[in-house]
Amino acid sequence: MENSKAPIFTMSIVAIIVGAALYKQIDFKTMTVEKPALSILYAVTFLFAVAVLVRNYRKGAEK
């Protein structure tokens, strides 16, 4: 049972850190990003972490 909680915890931490970094990159006044390539990498990583969390949530809800 403990092994199934490790990916959820890890991806939660990754999503929080990368989401905060992505938020800091965005300038909402001009709707631009500071470093476009880094922002794309942050966005892909954030979406991957959220997808893993959603997949694990759905798998847990089925049981």
Descriptive notes:
This protein has 63 residues and is mostly helical. Helices cover 81% and strands 6% of the residues. A two-stranded antiparallel ribbon has the order 1-2. Helix 1 packs antiparallel against helix 2. The longest helix is centred in the C-terminal third of the chain and has 27 residues. The chain is elongated, with a radius of gyration of 14 Å. The mean pLDDT is 89. Keywords: Membrane, Transmembrane, Transmembrane helix. This is ATP synthase F0 sector subunit C. It comes from Epilithonimonas ginsengisoli.
Q: Give the N-terminus to C-terminus distance in angstroms.
A: 13 Å
User: Quaternary status of these chains?
Assistant: single chain
Query: What can be said about the biggest beta sheet?
Result: 2 strands, antiparallel
**N to C succession of SSEs:** HEEH
The number of E-state strands comes to 2
What is the typical, i.e. mean, pLDDT?
A: 89
% residues in beta strands: 5-15%
Helix content: over 70%
Q: Major sheet: order of its strands?
A: 1-2
Rg, rounded, reads: 14 Å
Tally of individual helices: 2
Spans of at least 5 consecutive residues with low confidence? none
Structural class: mainly alpha
- Describe the global form: elongated
Short description:
The chain has 63 residues and is mostly helical. It has helices spanning 2-25, 36-62, and strands at 26-27, 32-33. It is elongated, with a radius of gyration of 14 Å.
